[in-house]
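Posting here for the record, re: beta-D-fructofuranose.
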Amino acid sequence: YAYNPRSVSKTGITVLEFGEHLVERTGPEIDAWCASDPQRPRLHFSPVKHWMNDPNGLCKIGDVWHLFYQFHPAGTDWGPMHWGHATSRNLCEWLHMPVFLHPEQNLARLGATGGAFSGSAFRGRDGKVKFYYTERLPAYDLFAGYREIQKIAEPGRDLIEPERITTVLEVRPEGVEHDFRDPKVWWDGAARAYRMILGASIDGDPAVLLYGSGDGLEWQYLGPLYRAPARFRAEGARAVECPDFFRLEDKWVLVMGFVGHIEPTTGRHNLLYALIGEFAGDRFVPDAPELQLLDFGTDYYAMQSFEAEGRQIAFAWLFNWEYRKPEGSAYSGEMSLPRVLSLNEDKSKICMLPAIEVDERYVAIPVAPDRSGDYALPSAPIEIRLSGPLQGSKLVATEGGELAFEVSVAGDILSIRLAQDDGSIRYVAELGGGKDLRLFHDRGIVEIFADGGAVCGTRRGYANIEPDRLEISSSASAQVFEKLAK
Ligand code: FRU
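Prediction output follows.
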């Protein structure tokens, strides 16, 4: 398929446009071209070409779901950030849309890094959706010297491009270093005012900052919503990124990534942590002080959730900087399956399960009977389900004897191993009972949901091993499904 690089952004970077009718479906040729890449996941969103990271601006407008994402349209590595855009009517199949946001500053000078960083959608009381996001003003050092400011992009018709961009916050509070980004905004009915959070650090501790506004344009700093305990800084954490804060049932949930953090006992990094608590009078009081892991796998980062149709739906970026796609790949980066968030029975844990659309959209064909054994796998995305006690279970998927993934439960400890693992990092989680497990495998992506979604583990492997056999040993009953597009 020949791309049509006919639009050039202000920055001089060529921005891809697909087809003449920018609002219409972008054409089966693009889907066919993507599907012709034997390594490209089928159930998970990926950009047609080039680099993608965080999900941004998630929302549903009318019947259409919008997924924006951090995008570098000039290569398969991270670079000056744009907002890519895709739309869907079922949360599973996506149309690729033109780039929505371009970096505003002049990036012509080689090596400058900056751009339209992460942000989220906000639906005003007038029903209109706006996007709050961070613009990073470029610096020549990736880790220092930059400035981050907050802006609003008001979309024009059909969300093809912004109609107006306004800077709303430039000055950082005292003690807050360069990292000052990734806004999430909501209307606080009790305060009758807007609230916004930003990821940052305060005197070196990762922190989430809380802001208030009467009009959504002028913002006052209300103080920290959360400041991480000192041990995080000692373990390398520099700042909070992509904070998410939302009502879930009758609680409030705070989700954070700690850039630079390495978990000492397992060696894992790129983890997302969460707290459940109460939010009143601009104070967030966690029910328990311990941060809980949202996903134990490390390839589930920059999660963004949003409320639609009474559900809290989330996407995350499946990447952890450690491994990457082999040279020659047309693109880099995939999104998780859409997940729906809830709380467990005693409201002490966040649960995530694939959205019902994942089940509706794909025909699940049982490929294995209801028992342990050794099975041939189809060359397609699969789902494995175990129900019953998980203790002692083991799933080993291989291609010609080479390991694709191994999932095992020893005592109450669930662990995942991929071909690329050398044992220096342990991908483990403790089950609380362990009576059910769902595992999706899609061309190197493994997403696990156990204990009703209270334990989730996501890994992205790059060894390009497409398993053709699956060995199941478990006293739970097992089923394997082939996931096919309808
Ligand atoms: C997280 C992140 C965000 C930032 C964006 C830049 O992955 O670092 O904090 O806005 O990526 O691409």
